[in-house]
Every structure is written in C-alpha cells, then in structure tokens.
Amino acid sequence: MGEGEKTRLLTWSRELLAVHERLREALRLTRGALAHGTEAPAPAARDLLLHCHGFCVALTGHHEGEEREMFPALAQQHPNLREALRELRQDHSMIAHLLAGLQAAVERSAGPAELDRHLEGVEAVMESHFRYEERRLTAVLQTLSLDADVQDVLGPLAERPRSGPRTGRGTQ
Q1: 0.90 exceeded by the pTM?
Q2: What is the CATH number of domain 3-144?
Q3: N or C: which end of the chain has fewer CB atoms below 10 A?
Q4: pLDDT, tens digit, for every residue of 31-66?
C-alpha cells in the first residue's frame, strides 16, 4: 500500500476525532455563554440561545449522519461491530432526549442553575459516548471503505476537503 493509499484510509478515523473535538469545543462555548448569561441577562441570553441551538443542531446532525451513513457501512464491512453499533444508537437516543430537555429549558428561559444541570448531563453522556465510540471504532475506521460526503457522514462540523465536496475514501 502506497503512502497516498494509507493517508486515504486513515482519514475517516481522523475526521471522527476532529468532529468530536469540535463538538466538545461547541459545548465549552455554550457553557461559557451560560456563565456570561448570569451577569448580563438580555444579550447573554441571546448568546446562550444561539450557542445552544448551534450546539444541538451540530450534535444531532453528527449522530444522524453516523446512523444514516457510517453505521450501515461498518455493519456491512465489520459484522462483529453490530452490538457496539446498537449501543451507540442507544446513546444517540439518550443524548437526543437530553438535548430536547435542554432546548425546552432554554426556550422557557430557565434559570442558570437549571440550564447548567442540563448542560452537565449532556456533557457527561456525550463524553462517555465519544470515548466508547473512539475506543471501539477508531481502528476499523482506518480501513472503512465509504465513498460519501464527509458532512453527510459526520455532520455539519466536519470539514470538507479543499479539493472538492467528496471525501474520496474508497467505494462501498
């Protein structure tokens, strides 16, 4: 295998890790907006709403893309991962439930303490989910053959390659 081929194969695992880090940063920014929101209600509340909405959309888009694109390809190419993929889907469902609670709290202008509890719960489950997913999938993602748009697979925080809209990572 040539160096170009190896680089091509390693990209899905690198992309997953990069998106997870961007989502962690988005959550940090959302928590920062909450901290500032306790000092100056009107502008900070708008900031929190924007950060929360953006974070929720990004995390939801990431999980939807994994379930629609990545997980089926992994199940086909690595049947031994089907149980892990089922567990990851369960995590996605739990996180979606937590995000819905957070969004409802933001929409009804809940106080900072309640919002912080929601964010803390999302962060705990999200971090546990990311660690498990990285532990179980990083190695197989180095060999995943999936020709798909990186944002379709990993969500809106995935960076498209500069050369074009597709990842160029093999074929199914």
Answers
A1: no
A2: 1.20.120
A3: N
A4: 888 877 655 455 556 777 788 889 999 999 999 999
